[in-house]
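hi! just following up on the protien thing from before. the input was this:
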Amino acid sequence: MKEITIFIMFLLVTIFFFYKIASDKNGNDEYFENLNLKMVAVITDEPDCTNGYNGFCVLDLHVLQSNIKYYDLRNKADYYYGIIKNDKAEIYQEGVRGFCKKGDTIFIDSKDKTFHYKGGWAPMILYHNAFFYDYIAKYHQKL
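and the predicted 3d structure came back as:
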């Protein structure tokens, strides 16, 4: 009986998690539709997946192909998916801890809100945490 209760609780939490992503309470759909980013890039450094930020990682990239050459909202928006300057990019992606490493090729399509990596994919989510952006401003954002 205990196992059934635990399974039901796990199932409810899983359903809630996917419902939360699908319902897009933080404006993800509109943000990524407007971004309209298509990119192929190689991870140039080990991802920084610092604890305490819900699994979000900072990925430094060498851009192989992108429809956007310059994207930098640091002085215009509180929250943003990353920075792109010519053939370099820094993005903030959730769900890749332990799956992505230096040298991997990744594919991004913001219209589909998907981040593809070797062996899988993750949904693109705009992270709404001011402390995370303070962290990346201090330790990253060298572009």
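The longest strand covers residues 56-66.
Confidence is low (pLDDT under 50) at residues 21-25.
cheers
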